[in-house]
Amino acid sequence: MVHFTTEEKSAITSLWAKVNVEVAGGEILGRLLVVYPWTQRFFDSFGNLSSETAIMGNPKVKAHGKQVLNSFGNAVKHMDDLKGTFSHLSELHCDRLHVDPENFKLLGNMIVIVLATQFSREFTPQMQAAWQKLTTAVANALAYKYH
Predict the structure, then answer these.
(1) How many Å apart are CA 95 and CA 116, to the nearest integer?
(2) How far apart are CA 145 and CA 125, in angstroms?
(3) What pLDDT was estimated at residue 96?
């Protein structure tokens, strides 16, 4: 289990309160699909993913990105029980969707990049360290049910 200090929890929750989940979620998932194009295979039903413009403007990418980031918000609320919080999603992604757990780390990197872009002045090295710790812990929690 990952232990978050009071300072790390405070840094994470204070920044999270400012995140526009709809905007950031779409950008995060869009970037994942552009930067790591092999991840697109999990989103065949999303329609046109043929270019950066198509991906970043795709309403299904934006909607699912919002959903993903809303789920990530549970990590902010339950930093002390990430495995329990993401148990159901871990089973879903492992057993039904067959997502490579490495993709969770890639998604975490996109979260950090987008937050750094959107909150450049506030996203100090200490803030980045706290968020990197959280995204890594969430990726590990999501990979927990894999065999």
Answers:
(1) 33
(2) 32
(3) 62
Measure the CA angle with vertex 70, ends 48 and 51; round to 5°.
20
d(CA 76, CA 138): 10
> In degrees to the nearest 10, what's the CA dihedral of 103, 107, 113, 114?
150
Residue keyed to tokens 């089973």: 91
* Closest C-alpha among 14, 20, 1 to residue 123: 14
CB atoms within 10 A of CB 88: 10
Half-sphere exposure of 53 (CA within 13 A, CB side): 0
User: Alpha carbon 3 to chain centroid distance?
Assistant: 19
Give every CB contact of residue 135 below 8 A, 6+ residues apart in sequence. Answer: 105, 107, 108, 109, 111, 112
Of 7, 19, 141, 124, which is closest to residue 78 (Cα–Cα)?
141
pLDDT (tens digit per residue) in 17-64: 999 999 999 999 999 999 999 999 888 899 999 999 999 999 999 999
pTM of the predicted model as reported, rounded to 2 decimal places: 0.90
